[in-house]
Amino acid sequence: MSSESFITLPPDSTGKNVRTVQKTIGATTVHEEVFVVGSPRKLVGVYQYASPVVTGSTTSGYVYHSFFNPTTSTDLVAVRYLRINWVTAASAVYIEAALFRITSVSGGTTVPVTNVGKKDTNYPDPTIDIRYANPTVTLAQKMLSFITPGAVGQTIGIVEQYYKGPDGRSEIILRPGEGLALRQQAAGDADFRVIFVIEWEQFQGLPVVV
User: Fold this and answer.
1) Nearest to 138 by CA among 74, 68, 81
2) What is the dihedral of CA 79, 113, 137, 69, to 10 degrees?
3) How many domains, the chain?
4) How far apart (Å, rounded) are the C-alpha atoms in residues 32 and 39?
5) Three-state SS for 115?
6) Which of 1, 56, 66, 85 is buried most deeply by CB count within 10 Å?
7) Is 178 helix (H, G, I), strand (E, B) or coil?
8) Can you give the residue range of the structural domain that contains 80?
9) Burial of 150 (0-12, 13-18, 19+ CB in 10 A)
10) pLDDT tens profile 169-200
11) The model scores a pTM over 0.90
12) Is residue 25 a part of any domain in this protein?
């Protein structure tokens, strides 16, 4: 993991050259120093995943999708974008659905990492555990919730969240052994259809600029 540090430069005229842009202002030649916007993160890769459509369940507490940074991972995960499409194929019930932080996951149907899209095909395969069809999870904090649609064509079940901030402070950071799960809080409906789309960055280093 990287950390903040510093270096001591030698005296003027005997050290490293500094990159500048040379301009003439009036009769004077001036140098504007070039700065590179850096980050405390060492980027591993940026990824996006779109789930299959999961048919609704009448079971209270049913988990439709989970997304988990394995305990064996050496990377941190920053969630940058999340979209939930929770719609109905026919009239259904109005219940609460929620996105939770989770601390463990097992069971359900595991998604191969080859189903995950890479923002750049040169990135390595992600080290992420993605599941659907009612995996067993250990719930932590509720991160967001909404009311599911009860009529065909309603948009109240379509949720879109952007977490990307210039300093990283608005992102959801998932450390090894942490994840997210989309769950219904009461008995649902077989006419639900649920899709989960997520974009994330895997990195090493500091989560934010401090």
Assistant:
1) 68
2) -50
3) 1
4) 22
5) helix
6) 66
7) strand
8) 41-205
9) middle
10) 889 999 999 999 999 999 999 999 999 999 99
11) no
12) no
Nearest to 179 by CA among 138, 126, 124: 138
- Name beta bridge partners: 129: 68
Question: Could you report the per-residue pLDDT of 106-155, keeping only the tens digit for each?
Answer: 999 999 999 999 999 999 999 999 999 999 999 999 999 999 999 999 99
Q: What CATH number does residue 84 fall under?
A: 2.60.120
Q: What are phi and psi of 157, to 5 degrees?
A: -95, 10
Mean pLDDT for the chain overall: 92
Residue 16 lies in a domain: no
> What's the rounded Cα separation, in Å, for the pair 70 and 113?
13
Phi, psi of 113 (to 5 degrees): -65, -20
Q: What would the two tokens of residue 43 be?
A: 């980027």
Is residue 210 assigned to a domain? no
- Locate 106 and state its tokens: 């097992």
Backbone angles phi, psi at 135, to 5 degrees: -65, 155
∠ CA 84-162-149 to the nearest 5 degrees? Answer: 25
Distance CA(75)–CA(47), nearest Å, equals 13
Does residue 168 have a pLDDT over 90?
Answer: no
